[in-house]
Amino acid sequence: MIPISLADGFFIYLILGIGMVFGLWAYYDFRDKNLYQAERSKTVYHCVKCGKIYADKMGVKQSNCPRCKFKNTHLQF
Ligand SMILES: [Zn+2]
């Protein structure tokens, strides 16, 4: 058994706690990035022909309505 002082033990305990917090932070950040990135990178479109509101990939100027196939531009607020 390795003898350690109370201060060293407290320091090791503190480092393990901080490491655990950073580990959980990195884990949940990585998981959420993979889960929600597809949803975050969508834009809302409103079909002027049939009135349907739908979401499609961000970055495209026009999107085809899934109901009537009319080309719509994205909503601007
Ligand atoms: Zn439509």
Write the layout of secondary structure elements.
Elements: H1 6-40, E1 42-46, E2 53-57, E3 62-64, E4 71-73
Antiparallel strand pairs: 1-2, 3-4
Bound molecules: zinc ion (ZN).
What does this structure look like?
- It is rod-shaped and about 75 Å long.
- A hairpin with a 6-residue loop joins strand 1 (42-46) and strand 2.
- It is built from one helix and four strands.
- Helix content is 45%, strand content 21%.
- With 77 residues, it is α+β, with helices and mostly antiparallel strands.
- It has a two-stranded antiparallel ribbon with strand order 1-2. A two-stranded antiparallel sheet has the order 3-4.
- The protein has two domains: 7-40; 41-77, no CATH class.
- The chain has one helix spanning 6-40, and strands spanning 42-46, 53-57, 62-64, 71-73.
- The mean pLDDT is 91.
- Zinc ion (ZN) binds next to loops.
Number of helices, counting only DSSP H or I runs of 4 residues or more = 1
Overall average pLDDT:
91
Low-confidence stretches: none
How many β strands by DSSP?
4
Using only CA atoms, what is the Rg?
Answer: 25 Å
Structural class: alpha+beta
